[in-house]
Amino acid sequence: MAAPAPDVLDHVQLNRALLARQLLLRRSDLGAVEAVEHLVGMQAQAPNPPYVGLWTRLAGFRTLDLAARVQSREVVRLALMRGTIHLVSARDCLRLRPVLAESLERSLNGTFGRKLAGLDLAEVVDLGVEALEKEAMTLGALGTLLAERWPEHDAFALANAVRGLVPLVQVPPRGLWGESGQAAHTTAVSWLGREPDEVPDPAAVVERYLAAFGPASVKDMQVWSGMTRLASVVGRLGTRLRVFRGTDGRRLYDLPEAPRPGPGTPAPVRFLPDFDNILLSHADRSRIITEERRRHVFTRNGLIRPTFLVDGFVAGMWRVDRERGAARLVLQPFAPLTRPVRDRLTEEGGRLLSFAAADSASAEVVFDGHP
Questions:
Q1: Cβ atoms of residues 285 and 277 within 8 Å
Q2: Peptide bond before 173: cis, by omega within 30 degrees of 0?
Q3: Cβ burial, residue 109 (10 Å; 0-12/13-18/19+)
Q4: What is the Cα–Cα distance from 132 to 327, expressed in whole angstroms?
Q5: Which pairs count as long-range contacts for 94-97, CB under 8 Å and 24+ apart, including other chains?
Q6: How far apart are CA 42 and CA 304, in angstroms?
Q7: Which of 3-17, 152-166, 299-313 has the lowest mean pLDDT?
């Protein structure tokens, strides 16, 4: 007897599952570290976006709730998934980095391979680690130091060889709310006082990805992580995963007991920060944003603009303008909004301003573009 065909999930069903797992259907009571772990890290090219990302997901979140964890070394910033800077817990730094080591080395070779040709990279790493464990340094300063030993090689490539082969974390004040300045690095081992996990566990990472982003295809998993050959990992998980199909026929995998709310589940308006991983973690992003709107949000120079969600999907972009002690939240919808939706966005936007521009003497929410 043939096995029954997998259930089909459309983009609205996938949307509601994603929102539930991303803590966007209702704000969670999780603490900052627990939420960062649940999300398997937060993309963090700039210091402030993870704070806004946690504010929109957690009940009663304050900037100090995360800043204190950065200072106490419970969370750290380093290059992980897709080779981009992520904010993760100290535990996940040590668990995820070994799993991603091969993909990070592959990325290093693809970007800097020619500039590093002929070098003994182990020697480069040894000198870099020795320097960084004496004093935290920017990548620029590290490259300058290494180029004194290898003057015929590109300084930036030398610094990135160390970052690509060794887990380097960015030290405070980088990662603190409102702080600026260049990122200084040291080794994760010296900062955390512990070694990374000796036995990488890609299957555990796949399961955690599904808990935060599923249901998902193998290609989705690979886009999120930057890893390859995950089909074999999924195969080894076997009956620990449930199989669905998308409307295009692709196989989607999920944890059997993970939340999959019905398509009629209400989705509140939500504000997402720049670079939010919810927009970056699938090959097929139709569950959260249309391709037409993605082209407005993703810039040619690699920026991902802040967005807001209406009924679970990206409906526009936002920014905060400041002038003479006043803060203005400017909303740019992609299409006309009903009055009730505008009212909900204005109310939630006021809460965002109270969080992100608490030091302003006055604040207002305005709409720019569609009425």
A1: no
A2: yes
A3: middle
A4: 40
A5: 94/188, 94/192, 94/194, 94/195, 94/196, 94/197, 95/196, 95/197, 95/201, 95/204, 96/40, 96/41, 96/205, 97/167, 97/188, 97/196
A6: 14
A7: 3-17
Q: How confident is the model at residue 298 (pLDDT cuts 50, 70, 90)?
A: very high
DSSP 149-199: H-TTS-HHHHHHHHHHHS-EEEPTTTTSTT--S---EEEHHHHHSSPPPSS
Q: Which residues pair with 85 in a beta bridge?
A: 79
* Contact status, residue 163 vs residue 47, Cβ threshold 8 Å: no
Please, what's the b/e burial string for 340-356 (b: 16 or more CB within 10 A of its CB; e: otherwise)? eebeebbebbeebbebb
One-letter identity of residue 237: L
pLDDT in tens, 155-182: 999 999 999 999 999 999 999 998 878 9
1 pLDDT higher than 50: no
Mean pLDDT, range 103-113, rounded to an integer: 95
Going by the DSSP 8-state scheme, the letter that residue 283 receives in this structure is S
Residue 326: both structure tokens together:
């006043």
pTM of this structure: 0.95
Cβ contacts of 336 within 8 Å, gap of 6 or more: 370, 371
Joined together, the tokens standing for residue 350 give: 């006021």
Comparing CA positions, the residue from 66, 67, 78 lying closest to residue 32 is: 66
Let me know how many helices (H) and strands (E) the chain has, helices first: 14, 13
Strands 242-246 and 8-9: parallel
Max CA separation in the chain (angstroms): 73
